[in-house]
Specification:
By secondary structure, the protein is of the alpha/beta class. The chain has eight helices and five strands, in the order H-E-H-H-E-H-H-E-H-E-H-E-H. The chain has one domain: Glucose-6-phosphate isomerase like protein, domain 1 (Rossmann fold).
């Protein structure tokens, strides 16, 4: 759990300085990427009230639903834009579908959370390489071996399992722990 705490600390530090979290993976890990963003961009386990000046301004502007809005972490899934992903795959190269988005969206101090059960998914590796070159903090979720992805990461969280299904089953409680730690730190 030390690696979860360190990864959460890096994401919180980035968030506090205006940074973003970019998340990518393939297949089941792509679904996990969307899931992680969903836990961070709105409340996960605790309420996250908006700052009072914003809530008051929205209420004054005639938006009674403002009481339901929540503070969030600027987290973005790199798997969610089908049109862009297919354009990159067609016009550039399929292995660049995430790296191109890291080039477009990433800034020094942002974080990339890269999920790969084997640690060998080439498009995820290219995203991590691009993120490092741009000065992003790289967090990897892999299986036991870590593959070539783990050494590219500033923080590698290795599920103690082999095989796609077993690793994916362990990634869920690991990234839930990550999201809960981030939420507790940023929204006490």
């Amino acid at each position: 759990m030390q690696m979860i705490a360190r990864a959460a600390e890096a994401i919180c530090r980035s968030h506090r300085s205006g940074g973003r979290l970019l998340v990518c993976g393939n297949g089941g890990s792509a679904a996990d990427a969307d899931h992680i963003v969903g836990e961070l961009a709105k409340g996960f386990q605790r309420p996250r009230p908006l700052p009072e000046p914003l809530r008051a301004a929205l209420l004054a502007a005639g938006m009674p639903e403002a009481c339901r809005l929540q503070a969030g972490v600027a987290a973005f899934s790199l798997v969610a834009q089908g049109g862009l992903i297919s354009a990159i795959a067609n016009d550039q190269h399929p292995d660049l579908i995430f790296a191109q988005q890291v080039c477009a969206y990433g800034r020094p101090g942002d974080c990339l959370l890269a999920l790969s059960t084997s640690g060998r998914s080439l498009n995820v590796l290219r995203a991590a390489q691009t993120a490092r070159a741009l000065g992003l903090i790289v967090i990897a979720f892999t299986g036991r071996d870590g593959g070539p992805l783990a050494p590219l990461a500033d923080h590698a969280v290795r599920a103690p399992a082999d095989g796609t299904a077993a690793v994916q089953e362990l990634h869920l409680p690991l990234y839930h722990a990550l999201c809960a730690t981030i939420e507790a730190e940023l929204f006490p």
